[in-house]
Amino acid sequence: MKTLKIANIPGDGVGKEVVPEAVRVLHTIADLHGGLKFEFTEFPWSCDYYLKYGQMMPEDGLKQLQHFDGIFLGAVGNLNLVPDHVSLWGLLIKIRREFQQVINIRPAKRLKGIASPLTNPKDFDLIVVRENSEGEYSEVGGRIYQGEDQISIQNAVFSRKGTERAMRYAFELASKRKAKVTSATKSNGIVHSMPFWDEVFQDVAKSYPHIETDSQHIDALAAFFVTNPSRFDVIVASNLFGDILTDIGAAIMGSIGVAPAANINVNGKYPSMFEPVHGSAPDIVGKGIANPIGQIWTAKMMLDHFGEQELGSHLLEVIEQVTESGIITPDVGGRATTSEVTDQIISHLKK
Ligand code: ATP
Ligand code: MG
């Protein structure tokens, strides 16, 4: 029996509504499979927790999480009561940093039955691998002079290790998919870091001769996400470029409520964290209409991560059978509730 110990952090708002739904789905999959078991331990760390105890998680929170196989997170944030920098830095960013989750991955795929805002929405099925620890989001820089002479300097940091790590991850992932990696670059305008990025990409590509490669400037690449996303399989991008591309990726799927994500620890020292793209959605909380697909698809990414790709692929097929059948929540134009969508997914899994 393969047992996966997962730390659940439902967090705030609709996170508390969709995490239990995804947990139901994972237990169903494990029961049907027989050789797999999930052991969930729930942690109430959230903005509510902060309002009670003055911190987002206890002092030894990271220690408590460290020995889990994975962290399954809902959403964190309650802007009315806790400023974003407190809720994010006190929990999410702390976990990402301390657990060296140096890569962020976000798939974008057209789901049957969900309207895409694209004018010519052909099928697409891509995944963005974003370097998540350095690049343009560095703290190196500062300001000098005052008034009209004032200058601000922001340096980007690209290490050979960090860059190569992201690229290897992308190539490995592409090996299990359609065997194509596109690199997001801008070496015609950014003259130090991006030519370096291109060099590392070419070096890493040499170890993967069976993978087709392509390099696109970020401006053109962003446009292709809108005009022809079906040309992509895996895209590897720096922190800033990946941030932008993944938002476009979520947008072309039709709702942020269906978009999944994972923060990956690649050295195996700490758990990876799986969380949907959406936030706590305070405007719909308590109404029972939150789309559970983002969280359930995130569970699929967790299955993939733990080597259960077959189960993961099947779950995504089932999600799509359900969206195609029209049992969808209001954010994507339907009338179903959160639990109705989950019930359907579960009953299709049992077929
Ligand atoms: P936070 O501060 O937690 O990031 P936010 O309001 O900034 O919250 P989201 O929570 O992602 O950002 O909400 C953005 C919009 O998307 C809202 O209108 C929300 O209702 C909608 N939304 C987010 N998640 C879902 C979901 N799972 N199902 C349906 N709609 C959603
Ligand atoms: Mg937000």
From TrEMBL:
UniProt keywords, alphabetically: Lyase, Manganese, Metal-binding, NAD, Oxidoreductase
Cofactor(s) essential for the protein: Mn(2+); Mg(2+)
Occurrences of domain Isopropylmalate dehydrogenase-like (ranges): 5-345
Keyword Zinc appears in the UniProt entry: no
InterPro entries named among the record's database cross-references: ICDH/IPMDH, IsoCit/isopropylmalate_DH_CS, IsoPropMal-DH-like_dom, TTC_DH
Molecular function per GO: D-malate dehydrogenase (decarboxylating) (NAD+) activity; lyase activity; magnesium ion binding; NAD binding
Family statement: Belongs to the isocitrate and isopropylmalate dehydrogenases family.
Name under which the protein is recorded: D-malate dehydrogenase (decarboxylating)
Native organism: Priestia aryabhattai
